[in-house]
Structures are given as structure tokens and as C-alpha cells.
Specification:
Helix content: 10-25%
Oligomer: single chain
Largest sheet: 7 strands, antiparallel
CATH architecture of the largest domain: Ribbon
Shape: elongated
Number of strands: 13
CATH topology of the largest domain: Umud Fragment, subunit A
Order of helices and strands: HEEEEEEEEEEEHEEH
Distance between the termini: 109 Å
CATH class of the largest domain: Mainly Beta
């Protein structure tokens, strides 16, 4: 006859000893489960953190790519384009249209178009290459330009300019920096050539250069005074006004209280 014997009832082992060992084994198993769960949670957190950081890095790189080569924001600080652009306008500028340069890679994207007469452009002027100016192209390579009594002439014919405005009724103005024009006259330089704000030329635009004017003709620092704009210095074409406010120097909250709601979304032409 076979008798089943409880392990704890065997000689030399008490029931209390067996219970203790079983308890230790169970506690060890629980501890191992907790450690395994902690390791699993740590691994999941590390994986999630890595995915999050990777996403942030990709988003940042895309932002830099878009900002440097596709679109960028600019603010209008002066009234030289008044009538088309106002002081306090914030613009989105299409940088890809004329071929954007990608910093750090010595690489330029191919241009989708070339600046044409009538285009409003953002560029670096020759006398202040670290700054951004916004003006309108009125002359391209080989064009002959002249101004007579505030009226612009292109290749001998008057130009229709509905965007231009003349607000100074005090008469013409002489500027000492206009002497550069004598080297680009259509005829030989004349000893008596004395260009003024409202009367100058005729001058010829060289290859790879543009002649630009502000729409607010009587209050614009433009090609009349500091010369032609190089093609390499053209940065983009303003697209639209995404924000605008009335600038009030003594009111720091003017950007919030003086919003020009009607200008938001205005397409620049």
C-alpha cells in the first residue's frame, strides 16, 4: 500500500520551515516581477522620449529649411512704400521664387522666376548689405531710365504707375549722393550733370542689375541715391500682409490696440 506523504511532514523538516521557504520564494518572485515591470516601463519611456526628440529635431530642421529657403517674415519700418505697404505691416516673403540660398550648405535652389518690372522685392542694398530693403523694380538690364518732373520714363516712353504717389509739394530736392549716375548716362558723362530727386537720367541699367524705387517717391531712399541692386542680393518677393498695426511710439500696447484688421491677408502687388 502507498501512502502520500506531505513534504512538510517528513522527518527533519518542520511545517514552519517549509512555510518560510515558500514565503521567501513568493516574495522573490514578486520582487522579480516588479523589477521586470520597472525595466519594461523604463524601456518604454526611453523609446517614447527618443521618438519625441527625433520628432522635435525633424520639425526644427523643417522649420529652418522653410525659413531659409521658402518663406520668411519681415516687418516694414519706414514709409518709403506708403500706399502699397505701411509702417507696421508684417509680411510673409516668398524666398523660393527667385532661388533661395541654403545657409551652411553652399547650395542655392533653382529660381522659379526672375524679377520683372513692377515686382516688389526684398533685397540687400549695396550701401547696407546687412539690412533688408523693400522696393519696386522699375528697371532691368539694358533698360534706359529717366525722370522728368517726377514722371518716370522707360526707354523713352512715360510709365503708367498707379501705385506711385508724390506728397511733397515744396518742390524738387538735391541729394549729394546722386553723382554715381554720371557713370551710367546713355551719353558721355556731362560736366554739368546735376541730378535731383525729381529730374535725372537717362541712365542705362547694367547686366545683372536692377533699378528700384519706393512707391512713396518723395520720401524713399532708393536706387536714385545708392545705385543698382545686384541679382545676387535679391532675397524674395513679398506675398501678403499677415499682421498690421498702427505704430504709436508712446504706446507700447499699440500692437494690440491699434490692429489694422482690414489689411490682414492683403496680397502685395
Amino acid at each position: 500500500m502507498r501512502w502520500d506523504v506531505d513534504e512538510d511532514s517528513r522527518p527533519g523538516r518542520s511545517k514552519s520551515e517549509g512555510g518560510v521557504r515558500r514565503g521567501e520564494h513568493e516574495r522573490g518572485a514578486v520582487a522579480e516581477m516588479l523589477r521586470s515591470d520597472r525595466r519594461s516601463r523604463t524601456a518604454r519611456f526611453s523609446s517614447s522620449l527618443a521618438d519625441w526628440l527625433r520628432s522635435i529635431a525633424i520639425a526644427f530642421l523643417l522649420f529652418l529649411l522653410v525659413r531659409t529657403s521658402v518663406v520668411e517674415a519681415f516687418k516694414i519700418p519706414t514709409s518709403s512704400m506708403e500706399g502699397t505697404l505701411l509702417v507696421g505691416d508684417f509680411l510673409l516673403v516668398n524666398k523660393a521664387v527667385y532661388g533661395a540660398h541654403i545657409p551652411g550648405l553652399d547650395l542655392s535652389l533653382p529660381a522659379l522666376a526672375e524679377p520683372e518690372r513692377g515686382d516688389v522685392i526684398v533685397f540687400h542694398p549695396p550701401h547696407e548689405p546687412e539690412k533688408n530693403y523693400v522696393k519696386r523694380v522699375v528697371g532691368v538690364a539694358a533698360d534706359t531710365l529717366e525722370m522728368r518732373d517726377k514722371r518716370l520714363y522707360l526707354n523713352g516712353a512715360p510709365v503708367y504707375e498707379p501705385y506711385a504717389q508724390h506728397l511733397d509739394g515744396r518742390g524738387d530736392a538735391v541729394h549729394p549722393d546722386m553723382g554715381w549716375q554720371s557713370h551710367h548716362l546713355i551719353a558721355s558723362p556731362l560736366p554739368a550733370y546735376q541730378p535731383t530727386r525729381d529730374n535725372w537720367g537717362p541712365i542705362v541699367v547694367p547686366d545683372g542689375r536692377f533699378f528700384v524705387l519706393g512707391d512713396n517717391r518723395d520720401n524713399s531712399e532708393d536706387s536714385r541715391y545708392w545705385g543698382f541692386v545686384s541679382r545676387d542680393e535679391v532675397r524674395g518677393r513679398p506675398w501678403l500682409v499677415y499682421y498690421s498695426h498702427q505704430v504709436v511710439a508712446e504706446d507700447p500696447l499699440a500692437s494690440l490696440s491699434q490692429v489694422r484688421w482690414s489689411r490682414l491677408g492683403t496680397v502685395i502687388r
